[in-house]
Here is the input.
Amino acid sequence: MKPGIDVLLIEDEPSIAEAIRFILSREGWRCAQWSEGSEAIQQILGLRPRLVILDVMLPGRDGLQVLAQLRATPEIASTPVLVLTAQGGPLAAEGASMVLAKPFANEDLRQAVRSLMPAGQPRA
Amino acid sequence: MTPEILGAIAIAYVAFMFVLAHAADRASIAGRWRWMDSPVVYTLSLSVYCSAWTFYGAVGYASRSGLEFITIYLGPSIVFAGAWWGLRRLVRVARMHRITSVADLISSRYGKSPWIAVLVTLIAVTAATPYLALQMQSVTMALGAFAEPGQKLPGAIPLWVAIGLAAFAILFGTRNLAADERHHGVVIAIALEAVVKLAAFIAVGCYVVWGLADGPADVLARIDRFSTTEAAKGWIIQPERWAVLIVLAGSAVVVLPRMFQVLIVEAGDDDRLRHAGWAFPVYLLALSIFVLPITVIGRDLLPAQSDPDLHVLNLPLSQGKDGLATLVFLGGFSSAMSMVVVSAIAVSTMVANHWFVPFWLWLREIPITRRPHDAPRRDDLRSLMLNARRLGIIGVVGSGWLYHQMSGGASALAAMGIVAFSGMAQVVPSLLAGMLWRGATRRGALAGISAGAMIWFVMVFLPSLGLLGQPQLWAGIDPFAGSVAIALFVNVSLLIVISLFDFPPPAERLQSFSFVNGVAPDAAPADPAQSATAEALLALASRIWGTETALRQFRDAAEEQGKSGFLPDLTSRFVSQFERALAGTVGAATASALTSRVLGRGAVTVADLMDVAGETQRTKETNERLELASHELARTARKLQESNDKLTAISSQKDAFLGQISHELRTPMTSIHAFSEILKEPDLPGSERERFAGIIHDEAGRLTRLLDNLLDLSVLEGGQARRHAEVVNLHDLIERAVTLAEISAPGRPAQIERDPLAEHLPVITDPDRLLQVLINVLANARKYCDAPQPIIEISTRRHPDGRTEIDVTDNGSGIAADRQTLIFEKFARLNEASRIPGAGLGLAICQEMMGFLGGTIAYIPGQGGACFRLILPHLPPTAHHPQ
Here is the structure.
């Protein structure tokens, strides 16, 4: 089978993106990153990741809008999505598989990814 | 007394007029010298009617034709004393429509027709040229009277006269381009000249009556005796000539370009006409009372071959009264000077507004709306129009001079005054009908004016130059009176007949309704209000009036609507007000064309017309009162709405502010958190470890800066900041800001345009804080200007009240109108899509800083790109420390 992408990280802050990529790749996940909202859906359609990590505050297009469109696009509608938010307080993220508030403990991130990743498919 | 000394006196006199006009202009800008607006000055300025032709020529005229000269004074007196209410109507309507010239008035009435304006301007130029030549001739002749027999005067005198007068007209007639076209300097100069010529003429009259004759009784006896002699055979009263001349003079006092200029364009309000209604006839009477005595005594005392046109001058000269003669010379010179200057201004305004600018706009397709990324050039149309007027003045005065050189002789010129009168009189039927009869149409006016003008040209103008023979009419009828009557008859007939069979388009009916009923036309149809278009109108206005005037007009209009800022809603009321204000500068036809081009507006529809014309005058008036009340209500409601919105906005801002702070703090915190945990892991390569520590360090710095900014804000907002002020040179401060902004916002190179000389202003302020604001604004311009070649213009100016303004303008696409009020809010990053770092506190801090310095920062729309204006007070607020 062709080598797919495990996680597509959609996040505009370069240092946060770097930290997450570092944490996840040490876990053995194959990661790709995209840093703005307006073409995020095309990226997901093209890369077909098993999991999407999505920041809420994105340039170009709000993360929640991206999420809504993802859920409305049949080919990728079932992809699990981990939403990251830097706003304090509860976030009503319709369609999110899980919400993680920034800043987060690295272990929480690792666990969230592990639990959301669809089972039965090998890691790299 | 030699011509040389006299020339020197004349030059000194002109120089004095320059100083006086300059002082008057300055005073009117500063709002001083309110008496300049008094009825006395107004009435005196009307005396521009009495040119050198009347000053010297009245005696010559009386010498040839007896009492007939009095018609030239009688016509205007009848119009002023008998019909001042009619004149007042005219002034009201003309001011309502911001009329700039007689051509503009008629064009505006007949549907803002550019062709009528072109035609009337043509008549005005044709009639004015020989008339101007006559004025130069009079100065030359008067100088010649002082020459010794055989002495030859330099031939260049008329040229120097022309140059001097054109310079005066250019300096004081084209200094500014405003919606309110008034020239206080010129008006005050001609008012003084009116006094000089009256004083001179009365002085000569008194000298003649009591010095040369034995008082009034002797003079009357001499007149009686003279009227029976052979020399007085021309002294017969021809009724048809009298009638025509009175009508012509009465028309001329309104429609001659120079008269229209002082009577209507320079009239501040119509109230002064009531005083002028009796005062101007009195002035004319005073000027005419000594004409016959001077004529008769001149005949008695001066040699027979002496030119009666110069009796006024030759009488005191022959008696060795050099002082009196000099005064007379100055009187005549004043008459010539005011006539030439005002005519040149009036005719050149017509030529520029009705010939040059429309032609130029048609030829060059000047982009009315600014293309994106042009350099911010603000008043290019303004300089184009001012230059057109300057060229117009040179052209008009120059052609007068040329005409004088080519015609060469006085005899051909003598009748030019009345010839000009009869030419301009051809516009009177259309003007009168336009004011009184709604049925008069554009085609009728065009046909009437052009036919009348053609007949005048062939039967009056050409014969007066000797290019054609006098037309032979019915026996016993005076050829001149007959020709004028024919021209006017054909003119009026065509106007009436064609108008009766014509059906004017809606736009024209709108104007005719407004002119006949004296109601402001408020039904200019506007597109649904779009602030983007209001900004386009503001940009157009800035290019014509200059930024300051345009901004003031727009701010006032917005305020009247109860809005803050510079962009009023495009209500039909505002659009028609704007168009009329523009018409005050460029004429109705051009203003309408320009406004329509910006608004993308179509023609007036019948439905628009029904709105206005369907109502009777009475309901219109009631409505206006009601409208005023509801307008007031709407204003209050609007203000309430605005403050309510503001309160709601502030409350939701508070929530948003906390959310934003949370976000801005959590973002760097997230990186620090994650990387510090990573660093705890044991098996990390050294290089990675170092890089991650670096990231933590940077993000910690970012946190600190954010906290610093927040602290700055709260300190400023809480009013606890330390006040500190010193005198600094603004130039040095800007210099440093430009350098530091380049460091803080590197990236694409931006071209900085400055005017270093204007920047050298001492300001008393807290330099560190002002520097911070400047850096912020400049760095913003560097970051957000999206032009391919960014240009940032910094301009500074000091107002008379001590305020200092600093404008920073770029050539990008600016800020959308609906965001313009938001940008000074905290965390309002304009463009979420841009990848530009920054917390969005910059402008909020700038605003607080400027407030702290006692000044303001504002976004100025319509300047091309984004434009921020910092205003610093003369002195910073005094230090106080709340405990």
Remarks:
- Confidence is low (pLDDT under 50) at residues 609-618, 830-837 of chain B.
